[in-house]
């Protein structure tokens, strides 16, 4: 099949979903379930209409752009001045729960697959740690769920992909170094390179994000710009941060995340159109990513899946996720059901897919098949488990809390 025909099929699927989105949303079918399933059916594991290769440059271009915009947009929504007053829950989940998840996950992977190098175990754990709020939309949108619970899930999801990225880069470089046995890349050399990426990336993000916000405020104040171009400017800031960081030796993805955080907390003018514009763009790119997951990544991962990778996947959705979150919430006045909701709704989705694609393209290393298998099984099970459980658990929330109050 030609590339044109394959992408035409993908676009027809997107058009169909857009036309019937309200009836679909009223059902048990979520956006990730629909498009990951459609991609799987159209891919080589199904009808075979889509036969894109994992190394196809188009796939990696879409994944790279999606990751840039996802990091930039998610970070731009976070208001640092509110973190201390209102975001105590996500702060605990990010600063305590997330490192514990990576450490516990690395240990479990080494226990279940002792033949894996520790760097690959760390890489896999870092890829599987970030959460995706898109799979928990029924929880976030349900009026029965307290705002602080919904906010905690949303803020954690917005920040943890950016925080996991340095660990992903560091572990991937260590694995690539071990594979090539390049004597010039000593552990010190790798650490030095990662250090440069982690230092120059944020610096580029701060400079570009701050200047971008100030320039947009100035142009808006003097009425030099128009709403439609605000969204274009916003996208350009994210891309400029990425390429600017890459130019000076920093990590572009970290720069995009920091630029979004800086931009969102620097701009004074309320640019409503930016949010509306970016939500549409972000949804479109997310749809393409879930289609790629179903059509391209899933068949490759499932081909290398086994009982060990399945056990790792189930553990990252249950024990490895829920135990660290429970520990991070010790001392907080929360009902057991609220703790369960915060622990359970750590769905794996967009960030894990994009990190796996990023690593598969950028680094030549052994054991990549096991990492892809773990990612595919974890994300696939999460799409189903969290997508199907979100609405019932959200509706059950009010009844549970009413019983507590009446006791």
From TrEMBL:
Keyword Membrane: yes
Major location (coarse): membrane
Translocase recorded as keyword: no
Localization annotation: Cell membrane
Domain of life: Bacteria
The Cation/H+ exchanger transmembrane domain, residue ranges: 19-394
Matching InterPro entries: Cation/H_exchanger_TM, Na+/solute_symporter_sf
Keywords of the record: Antiport, Cell membrane, Ion transport, Membrane, Transmembrane, Transmembrane helix, Transport
Transmembrane segments: 6-24, 31-51, 93-112, 118-136, 157-176, 188-211, 232-264, 284-303, 310-329, 341-360, 372-390
Membrane topology (UniProt): Multi-pass membrane protein
Name assigned to this protein: Sodium:proton antiporter
Organism (species): Maritalea mediterranea
